[in-house]
Amino acid sequence: MSDVARAAEALRAGRLVILPTETVYGLAADAGNAEAVAMIYEAKGRPSFNPLIAHVFDVVEARRVAAFDERAERLAEAFWPGPLTLVLPVRTDGGVCDLARAGLDTVAVRVPAHPVARQVLEAFGGPIVAPSANRSGRPSPTTFADALAETGLAAAAALDGGPCEVGLESTVVSLLDRPRLLRPGAVTRDQIEGLIGPLSEAEADARRSPGRLAAHYAPDAPVRINVERPAVDEAFIAFGDTPVATPFNLSPSGDLKEAAARLFTLLRQADATRPACIAVAPVPDEGLGEAINDRLRRAAGAVG
Ligand code: TXA
Ligand code: MG
């Protein structure tokens, strides 16, 4: 049996699988199996009011899980397979159990682009929930080794898909009433607004924007952001040209895509030097920079 077939078999048996996606590694379970989903919450130490994303093979399967409108169709057509998650009204017979949705009448759904994730979805033949494979509140794993170190013990199978190309979690857009950006990501605000018009911010209502509650992505060391000159006992993560000598640079050439792909790995590497603090240089807030700065603010405890 191939690794992919074994992984699909483990999912069918109600067990957990570490799965590569183009954004970050996920800890996957059969979306319809509440006991398997409960194991995810337990393995991550995740509050069970924070719902999971249902991953499906294509838009046909997505329409079975969620009620699509014209805006959803347009975004799916433009960005799937890829790093975009849509929050839509759930179809209760769509195979995503209550616990996976934290009891909400809505569901987050995405079609991932990574070939290994796609092979598993095809072999499994139904929706798979997969939160990032980190323990709750820690940076998302973007390499196989980091994923194993975070939640490997809870998984019956683990697939190595190499380092994640995007390196940040998917963009989450809610289409329940007016479109809202719940989580910035690799599909940028401009790209989405170009297709469906202006995006509002996430609501304060926790049932509508559950992910906004949690402080997130934090390494063990405290994090300071927008730092030009680090103190001597700080690990410094630079961006672009820098006069400060440091082994950590998000992108020496100032490329936001490269910076996104390296962000969580560099946070982990800087953390491993056991610094008093991790200081991070300013990153421009345009395009993909919005998502990078969102994760950095959360790592610094400036959100939630
Ligand atoms: O890139 C990704 O999306 C990765 C890979 C593995 O696919 N997965 C991921 O899942 O980041 P997770 O569980 O770490 O993040 C899911 C986010 C959370 O912020 C959660 O609150 C939000 O999506 N979410 C899920 N269901 C929702 C819903 N029904 N309404 C609003 N937000 C929802
Ligand atoms: Mg996560």
Automatic annotation (TrEMBL):
Annotated catalysed reactions: L-threonine + hydrogencarbonate + ATP = L-threonylcarbamoyladenylate + diphosphate + H2O
Principal location: cytoplasm
Gene3D superfamilies: DHBP synthase (3.90.870.10), Threonylcarbamoyl-AMP synthase, C-terminal domain (3.40.50.11030)
EC number from the UniProt entry: 2.7.7.87
Keyword tags: ATP-binding, Cytoplasm, Nucleotide-binding, Nucleotidyltransferase, Transferase, tRNA processing
Any one GO MF annotation of this record: L-threonylcarbamoyladenylate synthase
Subcellular location, record wording: Cytoplasm
Domain of life: Bacteria
Transit peptide among keywords: no
Domain YrdC-like residue range list: 1-187
InterPro entries: DHBP_synth_RibB-like_a/b_dom, Sua5-like_dom, Sua5/YwlC_C, Sua5_C, T(6)A37_SUA5, TC-AMP_synthase_SUA5
Its biological purpose: Required for the formation of a threonylcarbamoyl group on adenosine at position 37 (t(6)A37) in tRNAs that read codons beginning with adenine.
Family membership: Belongs to the SUA5 family.
NCBIfam families: L-threonylcarbamoyladenylate synthase
Name of the featured protein: Threonylcarbamoyl-AMP synthase
Organism per entry: Peiella sedimenti
